[in-house]
Amino acid sequence: MPTPRSHAARLFGERVRAVRLALGMSQEEIADLAEMHVTNYGRVERGEANSELHTIVRLATALDTDPAELLVGLYGEGMLPDRDRAFSVADFIAARKAQE
Predict the structure, then answer these.
(1) What is the pTM of this model?
(2) Would you tell me which CATH number, out of the four given (1.10.287.110, 3.40.50.1100, 1.10.260.40, 1.20.1250.20), belongs to the domain 7-99?
(3) Would you give per-residue pLDDT tens digits along the chain (100 residues)?
(4) Sequence-ordered list of residues with C-beta below 8 angstroms from that of 71, at least 6 positions apart, any chain
């Protein structure tokens, strides 16, 4: 079984699934409402998909929830796979000031 793409993708998928279950809807029903294939929808819930913005908005609309509710807190260290350069703008500004 594939592993989640990232901690953020796993948490996003868990939130999508929790909302769907609270509504008493099936994956097939939500996938249909979101105009996506149920296989792709399942990948979202398992955290295997790297959803684009329009997909996130379509899912939130189908789930009758604000996209922000599905995304809140999905930033910071440990959310994304390791990168060569995992710097934020705050790191950049601090480094630039250190050079002055």
Answers:
(1) 0.81
(2) 1.10.260.40
(3) 678 788 899 999 999 999 999 999 999 999 999 999 999 999 999 999 989 999 999 999 999 999 999 999 988 777 777 665 667 788 889 888 999 8
(4) 12, 56
